[in-house]
Specification:
There is one protein chain. The protein has about 375 residues and is of the alpha/beta class. The chain is about 35% helix and about 15% strand. The longest helix has 22 residues. The radius of gyration is 21 Å and the shape is globular. The model has no long low-confidence stretch (mean pLDDT about 95).
Length: about 375
């Protein structure tokens, strides 16, 4: 099979779908690899490294997409990339389709066979291709929050941790999964007074044990959330609804109650965000102020650390890329985890959460295949 990777076009997105090591592994398995010129530069991988691995470097994304059977990306295609999509092409990337009806329509109309990283699910329920980027996003969320609280800027000029005679900042974390855990690791280390809200009692107990009482936990409900957010300095959302749209847990009134100069880092913005005031931003213009509160809602946070993110991501995607390259769509029949990521197959929407979110017809994967 011919496998390719292209330069990502999202603003300030420097990750790449294949590393030179990944290209070498594919070539050693008997496949051909095409890379768009400069695609790996942002992650620190020059074209010469791909050529040394045996890949062919070509000038444009269109050349890559027209020639390959499997296109490995990082982020969902943007409208200028829609012409690259076609029947017979397998697209393997993050998609986050539930809040993106235009992209869903483009995938269906093109006939491309798309598989979403974030939906690949093992039998134990874990999300192996989302896990490393969730770790990065969670740690970054705490770092970003700490920075945005400082001056100059609209933050309230507060240090997360305590110093002698001065109380620490108060941080609220929504969710108890990978993003939340990674964020708590940084918040606790910096000395913030941290409260985690989740509906998962088992995960809350695990967090209490892991951090040895250095954070507080509460079962989430509207009253508890409103109480914790009033006057809070920092809110980090790590809520995940696999394949679906994030619930709007934080009302505009709750945002306002945090007070001027507070900070919200909504990692859930890929799924629409948990705050009524959240809207996607970019690394070029990452923040805005609404209700007096600084909002950071960058939809591709790990793109800010592309070397780390690319190496972490491609380490976990490569086994699935190799399986797809070896077996094509038969890999979906053979691997239940990969099958769970199938989104559009042969012009049919095979992701039930996306179909329900957008009110579109759903086709079971077995029928589409």
């Amino acid at each position: 099979m011919k496998v390719g990777a292209i330069t990502e076009t999202r603003v300030e997105e420097y990750r790449v779908g294949l590393t030179p090591m990944g290209a070498r592994a594919l070539i050693q398995a008997g496949h051909q690899v095409l890379i768009q010129r400069g695609a790996g530069l942002g992650s620190g991988f020059p074209d010469e490294d791909y050529e040394a691995a045996g890949a062919t470097v070509v000038d444009t994304a269109a050349e890559v997409a027209a020639a390959v059977d499997l296109l490995v990306k990082v982020k969902e295609p943007l409208p200028p990339e829609y012409p690259l999509l076609r029947s017979g092409l397998i697209l393997f990337t993050y998609l986050h389709l539930a809040p993106a009806p235009d992209l869903t329509r483009a995938l269906l109309q093109s006939g491309v066979d798309s598989i979403a990283y974030e939906m690949v699910r093992r039998p134990d329920g874990s999300l192996p291709l989302l896990f490393p980027m969730s770790q990065v996003a969670g740690r970054m969320a705490a770092e970003v929050g700490a920075h945005l609280l400082k001056k100059p800027g609209p933050g309230r000029g507060k240090l997360l941790g305590a110093i002698t005679g001065v109380a620490p900042a108060r941080a609220v974390v929504l969710g108890s999964g990978t993003v939340a855990t990674a964020a708590c690791r940084v918040l606790v280390a910096l000395g913030a007074r941290t409260t985690v809200l989740s509906r998962d009692l088992r995960r809350l107990f695990t967090l209490e044990s892991q951090f040895r009482g250095r954070l507080s936990t509460r079962v989430i409900n509207p009253a508890a959330l409103a109480e914790e957010l009033e006057g809070a300095d920092l809110l980090i959302s790590g809520v995940l609804v696999s394949g679906g749209i994030a619930p709007k847990l934080v009302s505009r009134e709750m945002v306002r109650s945090m007070g001027p100069g507070a900070v919200i880092v909504d990692v859930s913005v890929d799924q629409g965000g948990v705050c009524e005031t959240s809207r996607p931003t970019t690394h070029a213009e990452p923040t805005y102020v609404e209700e007096g509160v600084v909002h950071y809602c960058v939809a591709n946070m790990p793109g800010a650390v592309p070397r780390t993110s690319t190496e972490a991501l491609t380490a976990v995607t490569l086994p699935y890329v190799l399986h797809l390259a070896d077996r094509g769509l038969d890999a979906l029949r053979e691997d239940p985890a990969l099958a769970a990521g199938a989104s559009t197959i042969r012009g049919k929407l095979v992701s039930r959460p996306v179909a329900e979110a957008q009110g579109l017809p759903y086709t079971p994967l077995e029928q589409a295949l």
